[in-house]
Design brief:
With 371 residues, the protein is mainly beta. It has one domain: Beta Barrel (Thrombin, subunit H). The protein has 5 helices and 23 strands. One of its GO terms (molecular function) is serine-type endopeptidase activity. Keywords: Signal.
Length: 371
């Protein structure tokens, strides 16, 4: 269900400072000069926010091919001292969570697990619900933001990639057809709509970034670099100023590793559990043009910006592994099929590339301790 919600909540910043709007090769971002934390939205308000529609595949790349460069890996982190989730009263789930199971029959049982696109996948709730407050799930969460032109609120998905930075899709931070940034970003790690209080609260923003390829691409997808980064302001926890990544941990990231890979995508799709529970989607990725890849999926709007993670999970004692760096983000949810999820059932991601690296470098350098 698609709907626009207007919420009576305090605006986070009266003015925005535009920076980095020089040459096309430069990074583009806006800075929030007033980083005080606004009042948290209630779980009921969060439930009511509509998912940002997932961009549908269109003709044209939306940007010239970017140089992939030498593959790079940026390490992740899990703190030795585990954060303690806030105690919360349980709320009843929305009525449509227990609705009928929707089946998309395409002639035989085999076709239902992969759709007409032919990409096998598994989509499921993250379960039990308490799992979302543990690593590595808690490093992903729900991202909400406001379109200042329409005053409408929307939701996407994002993931922590350094001490203060979260990664999402470019279309979740910048409206490429309207030529404007969204604003009033709030990130809720490990969000769960059945809780009266979210386990690690809501975190506000200091700055937001996107790539020139997304900004100048006209909003068409696949796009060579549909990426966005949000700098998250510190919170005072137990009398100590904490960064979100230092407190909860963060994912590793790696460029040029998207395709011919087995990945787990995390998201809050509005078409599953009304975007109220974290959903995990697993499948194999395959090239789709020169700058993106696709994976079978039944997720729709709201999952935009969700991380595509290789070697996801917690390594067991004595486990034989081929790579010692687990939980690396190699892409984010960018687009879906032109006709919607059914019957094709796939999603696409831009390949993390030199544009991503340049954006990350710019965001890391803006404030000491960001990375």
């Amino acid at each position: 269900m698609s709907r626009t919600i207007l919420l009576a909540v305090p605006a986070l910043a009266a003015t925005l400072t535009l920076a980095g709007a020089g040459a096309a090769a430069a990074q583009t971002w806006i800075v929030n000069p007033s980083r005080q934390k606004p009042a948290d939205l209630t779980t009921e308000q969060l439930r009511a926010i509509a998912p940002l529609p997932l961009p549908r595949e269109s003709k044209g790349s939306g940007g010239k091919a970017a140089a992939k460069g030498t593959p790079q890996v940026f390490p992740g982190f899990v703190p030795a001292d585990e954060p303690v989730p806030a105690e919360s009263d349980a709320l009843p789930p929305p009525a449509d969570w227990n609705g009928p199971l929707i089946r998309y029959d395409a002639g035989n049982d085999d076709s239902r697990s992969k759709g007409t696109s032919g990409y096998p996948f598994t989509t499921t709730r993250v379960f039990p619900d308490t799992a979302v407050s543990t690593a590595p799930y808690r490093m992903a969460g729900k991202l909400i933001f406001r379109d200042s032109t329409t005053n409408s609120w929307y939701m996407c998905t994002a993931a922590i990639i350094s001490y203060r930075l979260v990664l999402t899709a470019g279309h979740c931070v910048y409206n490429a057809t309207g030529k404007r940034f969204y604003t009033d970003f709030r990130f809720t790690p490990g969000y769960n709509a059945t809780l009266g209080t979210q386990p690690y609260g809501q975190w506000t923003w200091s700055a937001v970034y996107t790539t020139p390829a997304w900004q100048n691409g006209g909003g068409t997808v696949p796009n060579v670099s549909d990426f966005g980064i949000i700098e998250i302001a510190n919170q005072t926890i137990g009398g100590v100023s904490r960064t979100i990544g230092g407190y909860l941990g963060y994912y590793a990231t790696a460029t040029a590793r998207l395709n011919y890979n087995h990945l787990t995508a995390l998201g809050y799709p509005g078409n599953i559990d009304s975007g109220g529970r974290m959903i995990a989607n697993q499948g194999e990725t395959r090239p789709y043009g020169s700058s993106s890849g696709v994976m079978g999926s039944s997720m729709a709007g709201g999952s935009s910006g969700g991380p595509w993670i290789e070697d996801f999970g917690v390594v067991g004692s004595g486990q034989l592994i081929a790579n010692s760096v687990a939980n690396r983000i190699v892409g984010v949810t960018s687009y879906g099929p032109a006709g919607g999820p059914s019957p094709s059932f796939y999603q696409g991601s831009s390949i993390l590339n030199a544009d991503f690296t340049a954006m990350r470098t710019t965001a890391c350098a803006r404030l000491a301790g960001n990375c």
